[in-house]
Amino acid sequence: MLKGEVASATIMFEKAALRNPAAKASLQWLADSKEGFKLPQTASGFLSVIIIFFLLSCHEFAHGWMASQRGDDTARNEGRLTLNPLAHIDLFGSVILPGILIMRGTGFVFGWAKPVPVNPENFSDKTQDHMAVAFAGPGINLVIGLICAISILSLAFVIRLLFPQALAVGLGSPAAPIYLFGVPGSAILGPLVLVLKTMMYTSFALGIFNLIPVPPLDGSWIFSGLLPGWAKKLFEALRPLGFILFLVVIMTPILDLFILVGVGFWLYAILIFLGFMGFPL
């Protein structure tokens, strides 16, 4: 057989093996014989830490920027309107909790930074402006996640357009190794996709986590602003107990439910788009 025919036959076998459970061992052998990309656990954890620091800095900067736009310059005056992570790091939320999640191999890393100082007395509309400031942090995380998702899908589209016979495995799955069959430059594209995937799922998880309507998370301020007067007073009366409620959330399946449902929506949306392009789900 000619070299091109061998490559074509190999790709056909790989596609068939993906649909046949009995051929999984053969597919694994074939995949291992090719150039796949997955960081070692230590390097993967280091990458996650860098990404979480960047995302938390964007999160807090967005809070401060929105507060400034709504008339409150407290964050700017205290040096918190910056992307420097050293200005925002919280020992437990930015270091210990992400570290625990990385060591547990959860696949999704999230946390929080030191809250940006906000003085609602400077807002013209205390309720609406406070809600806007609260949403700005999770909102920028969701936007960053969406940009990463669009980048991955655009890359997949270009691969399919330029190399119709190519097969890419692991583009959308959170922890899967990345294999690019029949794609030139896989040594560069593999690490690029890995960084985009890690940032995408971490950013989605961080944004969704902070939207949980439990004090002291951002979602509690958004939820409070949506409540009628009597319900808002009752909710605010519970705010001093927020840390206890927060512990209940993170130590029970409630947290898993929020993260899995929220991140799962984006995961399946991405996998469906990849499937339409002919890449394995």
Termini separation comes to 30 Å
Alpha-beta classification:
mainly alpha
Low-confidence stretches: none
- Largest beta-sheet details: 3 strands, antiparallel
Strand tally, please? 3
Describe this protein's structure.
- The chain folds into 2 domains: 33 residues; 199 residues, no CATH class.
- Helices cover 66% and strands 3% of the residues.
- A 3-stranded antiparallel sheet has the order 1-3-2.
- Helix 3 crosses helix 6, helix 3 packs across helix 7 and helix 7 packs antiparallel against helix 11.
- It is elongated.
Short précis:
The chain is mainly α and 281 residues long. The protein is 66% helix and 3% strand. The chain has eleven helices and three strands; from the N terminus they run ααβααααββααααα.
List keywords for this structure.
281 residues, mainly alpha, 2 domains
Layout of secondary structure:
Elements: H1 3-18, H2 24-32, E1 36-37, H3 41-69, H4 74-77, H5 91-104, H6 126-162, E2 167-169, E3 178-181, H7 186-210, H8 218-226, H9 229-237, H10 242-250, H11 253-276
Helix pairs in contact: 1-2, 3-5, 3-6, 3-7, 6-7, 6-8, 7-11
